[in-house]
Write the structure tokens for this entry.
Amino acid sequence: MMETVDIQVTRVKKSRLNEMDFNHLPFGKYFSDHMLEADYSNGEWQMVSIKPYQPISFEPSLMALHYGQSIFEGIKAYRSKSGEAFIYRPYDNLKRFNISAERMDMPLVPEDIFIEGMRQLVEIDKEWIPAKEEYSLYIRPFMFATDAALGVKASETYKFMILLSPTGPYYAAPMKIYVEEKYTRAAPGGVGFAKNAGNYGGALKATSEARAQGYDQVLWTDAFEHKWLQEVGTMNVFFVFGKTVVTPSLDEGTILEGVTRDSVIQVLREQGLRVEERRINIDEVVEGHRSGKLTEIFGSGTAATISPLKELRYKDYSMYLDVAAYQVAPEAKKILTEIREGKRPDIHGWLVKV
Ligand code: COI
């Protein structure tokens, strides 16, 4: 691993670790002792520092607040049974982060700041990695525009940061989701493949309406017919028809290229299942449910891990699924958990030691 970057480290005087209840960690609510910060100006990245977690202050004209140049990532660090700390596939998140940066007309973040900065930050706060099953240290790298001006143009200055949040499961119970037909998340040529803040902000209204009706989330569909399935917004989605697993393809640039999605595809193929990345229409899913060929629906994501659906509703038709009989999703989850816990060989090189 490269260590060229010079990181200035200021440690907390007193850790907050002993104030934490590690048995009760809602997603993204608590933050570790330290954070990483790097500033971009005059066409290059300036000093990188790790410092106590603290508020930051800006002028109200901060460009990110007005025009939404803001992107992020989600990554997890785990602790193995022997106590070693690992980060899961951070290079894949770096690649996606810079794809998002490029789309949002922002500067790229070099590997030595993103990976080595993250490694050092996790090392300093490694006692914050929960040891409990299904728990982890969620890593949130993000970057936003910092020019203080209102002209609509790409900012000339940016801030890159990394926060660490010890966290439990995002979706604890099997999910109820409906197929979204009113709102649109992404269209070809848009920003659907980028992890920019606006994609999440634009989804909140639809999610609130779903919640009001007793659903957890919506399944996004294409902008034109509202029939071609995309993703859930916090997760990619998989449909299991016996021994064939189908997940929406990335070709149209309307869904996020999930790192967990890729892990699931690889482990399922290694288990001898046929995994098809292609366009999938809601009519095929409804037909599969009616005929009994559709056996499972599940989501995948860094925060969500692998989350089974117990119901998918389309118009007035509710597809109830027998989560207790699921085989594919639990198997994928078991394999990925065993790799992370060091109980199964990491043949893909997904774990990066801290
Ligand atoms: C993640 O899975 O890391 C995400 O970023 C999804 C959501 C929690 C924003």
Notes: The CA atoms of residues 228 and 281 lie 4 Å apart.
